[in-house]
Amino acid sequence: MAQQPSIDGQRWLETDGSPFLLSPVSLLPSWTGYNGDYDLVIEMTDSGHSEPYAVPERNVVILGDEPLPVTIIESRSLIVQWVHANSEEEMRKHASEVDLDAIAWREGPVLESDGDLALMDAATPGDEVAREDLFVFAPGSGRFRLDSAEVPLAPHCAAKLHRLVALTD
Question: Relative to the CA of 45, which of 19, 30, 38, 53 has its CA 20 to 30 Å away?
């Protein structure tokens, strides 16, 4: 799958009520979504997992249980979920400028990347997802931890932020 041009907040994805899946692009064909794997998502969410979590026995991460609109600011290794703002431009501007070092991040699950990662609706089978319904970005190969925080970005503007942190062994 060819990498899309840099997203950097220029486009937003939404689901019909499902949370988002973060997965290596190479594993998308094996993600069965509503044909089976989504049962694991529901099970984990029903168990109280509202923060990002790894699906057991799979190298994928679910971004919690809320279907908030999402974009990527690839230049900052940042996934942004829109909690509230007056406009896309306001959300993009403040997420691009927030001091990431001043945020109290919650350490999250670890994901292994073979180069490209995809972000998409967790209910959709990977072999059925349309190009316009996913983001593909290239953090590189290696292990990454997905840290998260819900933060006010400005008056009347808040987001759930998720950042990929490269891990060294």
Answer: 30
